Protein 1
Amino acid sequence: MGLNVAVTSDLLAALRDDLFSADYTADNLDAVWGSDAASALRRGQREPARRAVDPGPRLGTIATAFVLGLPVDRSRLGDALPLLGVDGAVELGLVRLDGALAFPLLDLRPHAFVDEAGVGGWWIASDLGEAALRHAIPENHVLGVGGASLTLAGLMVGERVDSVLDLGTGCGIQALHSARHSRRVVATDISDRALELAAFNARLNGAAGIETRAGSLFEPVAGERFDRIVSNPPFVITPRTDGVPAYEYRDGGLVGDALVASVIRGAEQHLVPGGIAQLLGNWEYRDGDDGLERVGGWLDSTGLDAWVVEREVQDAALYAETWIRDGGVLPRTDEFDRMYGAWLDDFAARGVTQIGFGYVTLRRPAEGAPTLRRLERLDGQLGHNPTGLGAHISATLAAHDAQHAMTDGGLAAATLVVAGDVTEQRHYWPGDEHPTVMDLRQGGGFGRTFPLGTALAAVVGACDGDLPLGAICAAVADLLDVDGAELLAEVLPSVRELLMVGMLRLG
Ligand SMILES: C[S@@+](CC[C@H](N)C(=O)[O-])C[C@H]1O[C@@H](n2cnc3c(N)ncnc32)[C@H](O)[C@@H]1O
């Protein structure tokens, strides 16, 4: 299929109007077949939805063709898309005709979101998946909006900027999100097909300012700098062995985790001072060495502020199984075992025992040397972040800058307040008057827990924006009958950490 977006603008406008008048929204889509069938679809099983859907009404016809990937009666398609018409759908590359039936060539589904700018919805075209094709997807498959896409979109810092680079744009979902807060977006990919679909989706959804460019990694933007870089790169570690498919959507063609290292190392040259890069990645644990430290090694060659959050670690065998299955190969088959062997050989060649996954935030300092290097494991449930984690990430960077700029004396003179989403938990042995464990719980952000000692609990409890920290420490020291300066020195590192993670704020 070739999508000529330049000559299909009118057709895309007709399609947009048809999808709009058919009320083709994410909520309505689930209602077409019910929540159980919707859950089955998310697991890649379309049979419950196929049984539940009535292909007669407009929504049923559109959903049957473009979500379930099933042929529909061509006259029904014409009724469902009256402005575009069947011929327009053929011209756009949405369907091919065979007798009385129209066979879908693309997946096209609604995507609803909430970000800092408000609620919104798009229609996203991508390649038909395995459930629709009834066979393994080809290596040049262009993925729709998946779990990793949603994760990165939710991490995006949303302050208004002039320019964003979306490296490895695929269907263009990050470019679309970026266009909500950026004047222009450059969306790159090695896949021409992905770029066609990204342009198709930008036009279909009326998003302005998105330019697509072909090429690997930072090649298409040589010599250019951006306010933001976002990338859900093809980070899946894949053996470079004959017979193991190299899916463009997940595998950048390099050995091990080298592609993620390249994006991290290359970001600095393409960020303006103060610019931020956000990406997802995998990293290897080799020969018992820590994977996060490995990422730290990549960062050593840059002058970037860095905050890396490892969300998950999988052992090498589980990782291999996950990604072999993702490619549509069934377990307990010879094909599966052959690939499993290739993956395990590849890991063994580099001494890889585990693979980490996480979020990387990089920032080119506005001036001077980097001041932030934070590599941490946070594998628990996230807090409640109705518009995503982006606002929290932005606030964390600002909080780092503010507290880093303050001397200990300055901090002692400052007034602090406990953030509104923080609660204190106390655990008692039954019958005891005093708690055995106390901690602070963060309701939003990463949903952190922070352990409290007696002095810190008393200090934090008094942080209501009234007295300066130093005066609070002096009063608490009096109560506990300890030295005031010593207590201040004891709690200051924790106070800095609580400020950094957003559990305390400068009043
Ligand atoms: C995991 S998909 C991400 C798609 C989309 N940005 C999202 O968030 O859903 C990775 C994309 O990177 C592209 N890609 C693969 N190798 C690349 C490379 N060397 N340089 C740039 N893009 C590449 C793939 O074609 C694919 O579209």
Protein 2
Amino acid sequence: MSTTANELREEVRRRYAEAAVAAELGGCGCTEEGGCCGNVACDGEAASFGEALYDAEQTGELPEAALLASLGCGNPTAVAELREGEIVLDVGSGGGIDVILSAKRVGPTGVAYGLDMTDEMLTLAQRNAREAGVANAHFLKGYIEQIPLAAESVDVVISNCVINLSVDKPAVLAEIGRVVRPGGRIGISDVVAENGLTTDDRAQRGSYVGCIAGALSVGEYEAGLEAAGFENISVEFTHKVADGMHGAIVKATKIRKPTGKALPLVQSPATAGCC
Ligand SMILES: C[S@@+](CC[C@H](N)C(=O)[O-])C[C@H]1O[C@@H](n2cnc3c(N)ncnc32)[C@H](O)[C@@H]1O
């Protein structure tokens, strides 16, 4: 990774570490302009980010610190249609809000993993999961560009406003494609740009750590997921977060492997007739 990419990732880590510590103390770490994804919600203005995107039934199930640390731009658990017994992975799990909700949905026979690179977020998420009384939530430290799980080990990948923060988005999508089993699915909330917007246009509309400048466009998301082995790809805008940029739900299914049915054997002229 280049120095610039390293520095950018470190800036992201530092900002979200601050947000985790602030949430632990009962406050909001995103008060500075463009400080982090969810800045608007912290300022108490019209909420395009954070806990306002969850319904009352869901927020009632969650500890206060998990809600305070909610920095997403959607509600992936509402679209992923989780079923009992499934294995779910939340990439960039933050304070654990979507992992806790997923753990409750998949029940004791299922597992919900959260993956995050920021120690302070992992500590907060573990505490929140304990407080919420879920025993089937597990938090892993690592990068979403190198997911520390085996290939085809997960039924569903969810994520909430994280992929835009990655400095290597093709690697993230490839890793998601690697860990999801054939026929498995993704339900991702993210900031997504309209196709006409250049990377400069996106950078003019907001900061990188604020989840705007690094957003993929619809076409980039679709192409990246197709390259990662997904089909039935849809990117649906849900709410505007900046001019030409939206909170969106990204859904797709991992292509099933060929059934293994034997193809009719075609013999080359050289071998035909030979025993
Ligand atoms: C905007 S917050 C969203 C957190 C959570 N999904 C939510 O909805 O509240 C982004 C989170 O992603 C994590 N993150 C960002 N880039 C990452 C990367 N490359 N690898 C692992 N975690 C990352 C940050 O540490 C932070 O906890």
